[in-house]
Amino acid sequence: MSTFVNPGAWARTMNKRADSIQRSLETIVASTAIRIEGEAARNTPVRTGDLRRGWQHKKMGRYVHEVSNDVEYAAPIEFGFKHWRNGFIPGRHMLGQAVHVHEPMMRRKIQEALRRAIS
Q: Residue 61 phi/psi, 5° resolution?
């Protein structure tokens, strides 16, 4: 006994699953960028508040978001700098720590979303 599969119906089902996966991935990436931005702000030392308020994220592509800080001294505080009197001042790694915390969670969420879509 053979089973007939309607190719048109099968294609529509696969397209719906693909659309669902894409929407899920976009949501996961966007929410992770927002969480990283917030975590970076919480990790930021405060003297005037400008550096903490400077964190922002923007969508660069379908699955790409950028978290950045345009404050002039953000990079030296993140990575460290050489002070003329005190020698090297180590970086605070505000953004690096935030990515380290949230990237594994994002990977797990993506794997779960793909697993759900396939099953």
A: -170, -175
